[in-house]
Write a structure and sequence with these properties.
- The protein is mainly alpha-helical and 259 residues long.
- It is built from 14 helices and no strands.
- α13 runs antiparallel to α14.
- The longest helix has 18 residues.
- The radius of gyration is 23 Å and the shape is elongated.
Amino acid sequence: IPLSENFADKTYRVEVLNQWANYLQRISLADSALLIYNQSFNLAKELDYIEGLAKVTNNIALIALARGNYSAGLEKFYESLTYEEELGNEVGKAEAYNNIGVVFYYQQDYDKSLEYLKLSIGAYKALGNVASLKQSYVNIGAINEMIGRLDSALIYYEKALKIAQEVKDLDEIAIGFNNMAGIYESLGRYEESELYYQKSLAINEGKSDYKSIALNYLNLASLYQVQKRSKLAFSYFERALEITKLQDYKKVRLEIYES
């Protein structure tokens, strides 16, 4: 690779190779990217350049993950974590915990997934990274909801909502209200479910976010249907359908017809 061969600092050559491979990955040349990542890894190994090894193994893991090769991806994420621990890099450790948790989720090992996502929470708290912390809370809430641990799901969704409110992120606040409403509905706490769906709806109406408004209407209609409030349910189905016709939201419209 002529460009990198001219650099006197060999560790910088590792970084150049890694960045080049990142570019190839972004333009969907994964096979070529993997070849360059391996060159970067081999050079970093020769130099005992731990920071470079941590970055490259993480990137190789991401390619394996994108290809659905979860075992290989997991092995490389663990390897990357080992390097980050050796460096004492808290940011890298947090990302590795999160990535490992994601792989276990794809492998449907939900307890292990939760274990590592919770480790990422501790790391993100220590770093003060509220955006990643909020997303980890949402991910943990979603997994708990999926496996029927609704009380735990509610706790984590509420934690995520609190952060969204603290940073005044209206999009995330609306999503948070909607997530909690869904849990309340599953728990049979219909009054609270309606209240939180309406809170989500109010925010989306204020932003003129018509796609989210249509989904809010659809959620409310489904809630009213469960409660046998048929006229109200039909009214909200109609409202949702009207928006989808005006805005051409075909996927949402299909959900309405299926409902």
